[in-house]
Amino acid sequence: GTIGLFVECKDILDATGKHLYKQERDGFGRVIAERYFDFDKKRVANSDGCSGERTEYEADGQISRITCLDDADHPRGRTNGVATRELMYDAHGCNIGVRFFDKANKPTTDPDGIAGEDLQVDSFCSQTRRTCIDTNGDPHACGPGRPAQYRTKMDSRGNAISVTHWSEDEQPALDEEFD
Fold first, then answer.
1. What is the C-alpha to C-alpha distance for residues 47 and 18, in angstroms, rounded to an integer?
2. Residue 116 backbone phi and psi in degrees, to 5
3. Those residues with Cβ within 8 angstroms of residue 18's Cβ, 6 or more apart along the chain or in another chain
4. What's the longest Cα–Cα distance across the chain?
5. In the sheet where 3-8 sits, what is the strand order?
């Protein structure tokens, strides 16, 4: 079964346009659904276009999917068109990727053509490589003027000491937003 909870916010709307949150939790106490309401306790969408979110978990407790919901608790595309983000993990529990799905649960892209990200991590689960991908799983620019891949070099203590940018065809690239 699930446990229903109401969590009241202050007497003003928060930054995402919500006043009241209604949460459902599973037997482990994890939030499995969250719904958003205005002052009159009517469903309201946040600034991302979601009237709530559903969270699904792997057997080991890791979050596997987060889905944007409409007022009737059906999947809805966020403002970027992505309804569901599916997270992937390695055998050590490190997040190694995310894939995007539309409201019909079909693979999709955001407005920049990104269908997800592949991540490489070190033994501490720190990201050492992030690659934006298209629906074929091929490298794709992470946005206009952005590289397709970021590679992070770590020192022996796990601190990031450099980040390099790479194009879709594995050539050094600039990130126009930062370079």
1. 9
2. 160, -170
3. 9, 36, 37, 38, 44, 46
4. 55
5. 3-8, 20-25, 31-37, 52-57, 63-69, 84-89, 95-101, 116-121, 127-133, 149-154, 160-166
Alpha carbon 136 to its chain's center: 19
Cβ proximity of 53 and 71 under 8 Å:
no
- pLDDT higher than 90, residue 178: no
The residue written with tokens 């997800």 in the block is 116
Q: Report the alpha-carbon distance of residue 83 to residue 27 in Å, rounded.
A: 26
What digits encode the pLDDT tens for the residues 56-112? 999 999 999 999 999 999 999 999 999 999 999 999 999 999 999 999 999 999 999
Q: How confident is the model at residue 157 (pLDDT cuts 50, 70, 90)?
A: confident
| Whether this model's pTM surpasses 0.90 | no
Alpha-helical runs (H) found in 4-150:
none
Identity at 45, one-letter amino acid code: A
Structure-token match 């629906």, residue found: 135
Q: Is the pLDDT of residue 10 over 90?
A: no
The shares of helix, strand and coil residues in the chain, as percent rounded to the nearest 5, are 0, 40, 60
